[in-house]
Write a structure and sequence with these properties.
Two copies of one chain form a homodimer. With 347 residues, chain A is of the alpha/beta class. Chain A is built from 14 helices and 13 strands. In chain A, the strands form three sheets. In chain A, strands 1-5-6-7-10-11-12-13 form an eight-stranded parallel sheet, with helices on both faces. A three-stranded antiparallel sheet of chain A has the order 2-3-4, with no helix packed on it.
Chain lengths: 347, 347
């Protein structure tokens, strides 16, 4: 069945090759990729620790496009596998790594500008350095935005220390894609290890979004375009309570000029919430018109058959019209005449 | 307008008098109540730290019943102000305090058995001691259940250390009301203090519920009746991801016999979610028939006009029939012929 062009804002990349640890092996968490048979099996290491098995879907435009054609995805926004954000490294080697990753993503976009948009990374453990680097992301690498972890070495993004970075993103029109990373809750869940991937990631994303709202980031930088993976995690139930609190306390004693829900409506959210009724809640109650398709391609807990998911969800009010590509275009800041994502693809 | 009898499962008590610190002042967080003009103004201290301003609504059956009549509430389940759970004290003084609080709640129930049910407290920092004490809660104090913090000194409730307590609750038919307390996330939110009450409490409740599910407590104790304040906090979005993970991993490699949503449907949830559409999501997608009215009376962020809230929500599928009193009776384990909550009250 024909459908509008579908843009997936949530898909990850690991370059097939990563630079060597510039200190010659002294950095414990420096990432590397070791190939057995690369098409089907490679291993990402963080230092000496095996981190994740991947295959050429992580770097091959050709292989990705085969899958996209099958899934009816016209264009993907490519972002680094979150572990590559490397906020735990020293800023200078982190910058070197970030430039390599940004270059690899930029090359994939350059190879198939009709099918890919690029989201890069900057070393936010040093906000001034990150701000400086963000200035060149578009021109140097051909990227449309930047992926950011839900917390940066323990700090949620509402912290004023990140203002220099947000100022550049606003000025340059960079899309900011927030993805859960090293959830702070993991520390409390050592006796409940299954809760880390299934609950911790979702919580950390929600707390990050709540921080951006309550700490006034959208008030200071009204032009920012921020999108959240996994539908903003647990933001919706937090937001209802925050909204009630705002109304009961005269706007938190005047500290927050607009209501939490007014800010939340300006964010974008991907659709990776694993439940159509919850997606409807987001699309109708939290952020009408702001839900983008996000699949988490090519990882394990990815959205299967995004078209069927959307078309199921499209039976419900408010999800259907903008989720195919309109919300994604507004989030990424690309026009309908941009080269990628114009074609309808039939699986 | 006439409506079915309304039972509020979420209302708190502070006794007007608390016992003196048995060590003569050595315990830093021992609670006390200092009256200025008790009817209108009293102060709860935790040790020397002023904790909360209260008034006689916290202990007076007469005063509460005036408000209940105005709000159309037939019966309240009385539970301790969560800070009184005192899991941070040594077990023996904590037991002494718990018995005093349980006695005070028991007296309120005895004074007006037509309007109150009682939920007590046990010193869960010592699970064996808590289990022993739980055996007598019904007969000694006339209570129908126990309030429990979302974490106990840093441990979520799915931890096997709490099994002895759950075994007694199951055997005695005690209702367990889980309320957020000292959210573990607070530690990460020191630069975002507003997020602690508005996001941290909600997150901690959700992680506690997720822990009870994923750690198999309902599998080990299928007869437990557990209810969560604030609609289970952030459980709903966590649950959707957990359910997808369960389905993608052969039940977490066989570790969890039933799906997370199957367990979640057996919990009870109060209605204090500050949003009718989110309440509908809980009532239709998470736990049909298991939503109870909860107001958080008599505190600041309480549900105003519960009848109007329910009657608004009742226009939506699945919320209306059981929320008035049926779910609360099943949660509390009290029959329709129980003395409290039989009358319709008109405001």
């Amino acid at each position: 069945m024909a459908h509008p062009p579908l843009i997936d804002v949530h898909s990850h990349v690991v370059p097939q090759e990563l630079p060597a640890d510039p200190t010659g092996g002294a950095i414990g968490a420096w990432p590397s990729v070791v190939c057995e048979a690369c098409r089907t099996k490679a291993q990402v290491f963080m230092g000496k620790r095996p981190f994740r098995e991947i295959d050429d879907r992580s770097w091959s435009p050709t292989r990705r496009i085969e899958d996209m054609d099958q899934d009816g995805v016209a264009a993907q926004a490519l972002s680094p596998m979150p572990e590559l954000l490397s906020y735990w490294l020293d800023p200078n080697p982190a910058l070197e790594l970030a430039r390599h990753v940004n270059g690899a993503i930029g090359q994939m976009v350059a190879a198939r500008p009709d099918r890919f948009f690029g989201l890069g990374t900057v070393p936010l453990q040093d906000p001034e350095l990150a701000a400086k680097e963000a200035r060149d992301l578009k021109t140097r690498f051909g990227l449309t935005g930047v992926e950011v972890g839900s917390n940066v070495a323990g700090a949620y993004l509402g912290d004023v220390r990140f203002d220099p970075f947000f100022a550049v993103c606003e000025a340059e029109g960079l899309a900011i894609f927030v993805h859960s990373l090293h959830p702070l809750q993991a520390r409390d869940l050592s006796r409940h290890p299954m809760l880390v991937p299934f609950a911790g990631f979702t919580v950390d994303t929600g707390l990050c979004a709540a921080s951006l709202i309550m700490d006034g980031v959208l008030e200071r930088f009204p032009g920012l375009r921020i999108g959240f993976s996994h539908g903003g995690g647990v933001l919706a139930p937090l937001l209802h309570r925050m909204e009630f609190g705002w109304g009961s306390t005269n706007g938190f004693e005047g500290k927050l000029p607009q209501s939490p829900k007014a800010y939340a409506r300006r964010f974008f959210y991907d659709s990776l919430v694993y439940d159509e009724a919850y997606l409807e809640h987001l699309a109708t109650q939290i952020a009408p018109g702001q839900i983008c398709l996000g699949t988490d391609y090519p990882y394990l807990i990815q959205q299967p058959d995004p078209r069927a998911f959307i078309e199921g969800g499209a039976a419900r009010t408010g999800v259907s019209d903008t989720i195919w590509n309109d919300a994604a275009r507004r989030f990424l800041g690309v026009s309908e005449t941009a080269s990628a994502g114009r074609e309808v693809n039939h699986g």
